[in-house]
Design goal:
Pfam families: Rieske, Ring_hydroxyl_A. This is Rieske 2Fe-2S domain-containing protein. It comes from Dactylosporangium fulvum. Keywords: 2Fe-2S, Dioxygenase, Iron, Iron-sulfur, Metal-binding, NAD, Oxidoreductase. Helix content is 26%, strand content 23%. It is of the alpha+beta class. Strands 13, 14, 15, 16, 17, 18, 19, 20, 22 and 23 form a ten-stranded antiparallel sheet that branches. The radius of gyration is 23 Å and the shape is globular. The protein binds FE2/S2 (inorganic) cluster and fe (ii) ion (FE2). The site of fe (ii) ion (FE2) has 7 residues, from helix 5 and helix 10.
């Protein structure tokens, strides 16, 4: 890309699906980041919280929507509303807590007070200083354009012309959330783990689908037994030992394959096929959640065989351990990671404790996997800033152009060895969002074809 040309005019050069190449500048340019905030985060349905986090009237949760923050609030009639956490007087945040319960929101600057519905209900000195000339009804907190829930997961959009949530999610996005909702009568574990990684948000997203890296990046997790290593007879060249030392060739078996599902608007699911995982575990407990037979029926053939890694565009990852992660872009080089953990309300205290322990040990600030991933993302981001380094393209060529997309059950499915299809799909959709098309144009352009 030429430095003097606007990124908006260079989108085809920035992401080439045909070549499987991505221009590194998309990970560091402020102008591109600003376009993302406007054209993606200013329009998409974004995950806010789970309904069980705000069960009672007056419960609230502060959630990010792109570069804005909103308060998601349980209303007196049990419904949910969301509005910007910025005072209509002079902009101060009207709420400083991340979550809690209130009767109303009083701004700490001059005391303007807003009801649970965001309406302005109190102004100090309304008669004396404003001479009763201020029309309170004209200055509520700014509401989101649309808010809706799917199976308890609350989403909102700033775009009043956006399609309804269920249509936006489509079969791929809905399946992603079903995979979590079907883990029992679920509730969110109190508290959200939040931490910062010096990375561009897109690295954290494309990594969701990357099943090429665990064998190298997460070697220590295999070594300490956090993830069961594959059986010895699957080790090509016999290079992997029990302790993970002497790794000379990749040990992931060549017959381990991915189930990839690509969906409209950029949603995707890509993880190892459940059966394939069980084979590679070589009789040991497979590193995957197996649903009860009746649940498998509900999820359908494809839903019950995909072992995780659904992603709802742009930044919501539903992970296989009963968690949901938001990747919150704060600047081109800084991303906040939020982890929501879920459990079955009816589980025993021991089961709940075991679930939480596993969730904490895999992901989040104390999670071994995420510490390892975070190092890669930070380094990859850093290298996109080098004057010369940034001219070297990112490659997503694995399996490029070789896979047939089969349409079944409303899903667009690829069964193939480990590949980079879902990553490429995500960047394809990203490019189409940045063109700022109409919703119908966007849907058409992100409709899966016959091959990837
Ligand atoms: S900024 Fe909120 S009351 Fe003045
Ligand atoms: Fe990882």
């Amino acid at each position: 890309m030429k430095e003097t040309t606007s990124p908006a005019d260079q989108l085809d050069e920035l992401v080439s699906v045909e070549r499987g190449e991505i221009d590194r500048r998309i990970f560091s340019d402020q102008e591109i980041f600003d376009m993302e905030m406007k054209h993606i985060f200013g329009r998409a349905w974004l995950f806010l919280c789970h309904e069980t986090q705000i069960p009672k009237r007056g419960d609230f949760f502060e959630a990010p929507m792109g570069s804005d923050n909103v308060l998601v609030v349980r209303q007196k009639d049990g419904s949910i509303r969301a509005f910007l956490n910025t005072c209509s007087h002079r902009g101060n945040a009207v709420c400083r807590a991340e979550e809690g319960n209130v009767r109303n929101f009083m701004c700490t600057y001059h005391g303007w007070t807003f009801g649970l519905d965001g309406e302005l209900i109190g102004v100090p000195g309304k008669s004396i200083f404003y001479k009763d000339k201020l029309d309170l009804s004209k200055h509520p907190l700014r509401k989101v354009a649309q808010l809706d829930s799917y199976r308890g997961f609350v989403f909102a959009t700033f775009d009043e012309t956006a399609p309804p949530l269920e249509e936006y999610l489509g079969p791929t996005g809905r399946l992603g959330l079903d995979l979590l909702a079907e883990r029992g009568d679920i509730e969110a574990v109190p508290g959200v783990q939040k931490f910062v990684v010096k990375t561009n948000w897109k690295f954290t997203v494309d990594n969701v689908f990357d099943y090429y890296h665990p064998q190298i990046t997460h070697m220590s997790a295999f070594a300490v037994g956090l993830i069961p290593a594959p059986a010895d007879d699957f080790v090509e060249g016999g290079a992997m030992t029990e302790t993970g030392a002497n790794l000379e060739v990749p040990f992931l078996p060549t017959d381990l394959h991915n189930v990839v599902m690509v969906g409209e608007y950029g949603h995707a699911i890509s993880g190892p096929d459940q059966d394939s995982l069980e084979v590679t575990a070589g009789g040991r407990e497979p590193f995957a959640w197996r649903y009860k037979p009746e649940t498998q029926e509900k999820l359908g053939h494809h839903g019950s065989r995909v072992a995780g890694h659904p992603h709802i565009f742009p930044t919501t990852w539903v992970n296989a351990g009963g968690q949901l992660s938001l990747r919150v872009p704060r600047s081109p080089g800084v991303t906040e990671i939020w982890w929501f953990s879920f459990r079955d309300k009816n589980a025993s205290p021991e089961e709940k404790a075991a679930t939480l322990s596993a969730q904490i040990h895999f992901f989040g600030p104390a999670g071994l996997l995420e510490q390892e991933d975070g190092e890669n993302w930070a380094q990859s981001t850093l290298q996109t800033r080098g004057t010369v380094s940034r001219e070297v393209p990112q490659l997503l060529k694995m399996g490029l152009g070789t896979s047939e997309i089969v349409k079944d059950d409303g899903l667009a499915i690829i069964d193939a060895p480990i590949n980079e299809h879902a990553q490429l799909w995500t960047y394809h959709a990203w490019r189409e969002w940045l063109r700022n098309p109409t919703w119908e144009e966007l849907r058409q352009r992100t409709m899966p074809g016959d091959r990837l």
